[in-house]
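Example with several molecule types.
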Amino acid sequence: MVQNSFSSLTMAELVNNIHPISAEVRQYINRTTTEYRLKKGEILIAPGTMCTRLYLIRQGAVRAYVKEGGQEITIWVCAEGELVTSIRGFFSRLPVTETVEVIEDSVLITAEYDDMQRMYDRYPETNIAVRKILERYYQDAEERAIIARMPRAESKYAYFVAHKGYLLNRIPLKYIASYLGMTLETLSRIRSRISRHK
Amino acid sequence: MVQNSFSSLTMAELVNNIHPISAEVRQYINRTTTEYRLKKGEILIAPGTMCTRLYLIRQGAVRAYVKEGGQEITIWVCAEGELVTSIRGFFSRLPVTETVEVIEDSVLITAEYDDMQRMYDRYPETNIAVRKILERYYQDAEERAIIARMPRAESKYAYFVAHKGYLLNRIPLKYIASYLGMTLETLSRIRSRISRHK
DNA sequence: ACATCTTTTTGACAATTGTCAAAAAGATGT
DNA sequence: ACATCTTTTTGACAATTGTCAAAAAGATGT
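Resulting structure tokens for the full complex:
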């Protein structure tokens, strides 16, 4: 068995980086989180189910989409180092409406909702850390709301290249197109137009 | 002078409703927040400035927009009972890129960033309350990202009516159109098509 | 009640993007 | 190296939405 070659964090390390926590809390987090491996194409969270877990991507990539009129609308795409879940399902405790799918072979670390609640109770300082994490993710969600409202397909793509360019040579264009609210063909034409014009 | 006829909350009451806080914290919040009145059309937060305040809308309505290629893209619209700020500016402490504008005569309650930081330090339980508030607002931001990606103008409008219908007979259609990522003319046509077909 | 300003609707036409189909290019497993 | 499967590109055309202009409807202040 080869050692992991990736350098991404554990859940406890991620929390500690945001807001330093005691060894006891780190232990609690390490004890209550588990590693999880999924193959490309597997479904992490299915619509209609309850989502009781938050995932940290150690390796791989994940996307969320909703079905709308036969089509899939990609809401977000995330890779290593990011926390993912069904945002509405996990926090509202209502059945999930989207699908969360692993789009590369992935290694995830899982935290259970109930364990997190106990953590907030027992170790109040973790509320500080999670408040800060949510502040950051809230900003990201706002970004996603802005890019999707740009009126021209070309501006959306330009914005995507500027802000999420690292995903370009990694994830299939069909997911990028769907994330940008356009068809694969439109994205392909924009890309060829751009490469011809310089 | 007539008594306020609206029943909306103070900042301390809002926090207390999410997570019960002590009288001391309520006092701290009441002491550090101030009421603020703005006329329709006034700018609450301007691009390029630093945003150091979070606002609770007691009465009125507020929207945020970014300028993109000469056009305004409305990111959100909020009314009484909602907390608003420059989401990225306030939390990142970087200059603001959007404009936040009062679209009705409004009464706002203002909380200063630095006062909030002191509150988190002095009264750790407020981190619990704000964590929960952020969980809720994070879900809303996710909704905004989904509605904007719907491929057809008509589905966006239907979704808006279902989820934010109470804003329909209140705020100008031009802001709704902009929020839905379409022109005022397109929205007007969709509405007349719908009223004709039933 | 009237004039004025703002918001919304309607029309004609143009531009952008989507749909369907097929080909080309690239990736994967043996 | 080859066959197969997946992803991306290209073309022709249709549908949707945007643009510009003008009219209609509604709101506001005196």
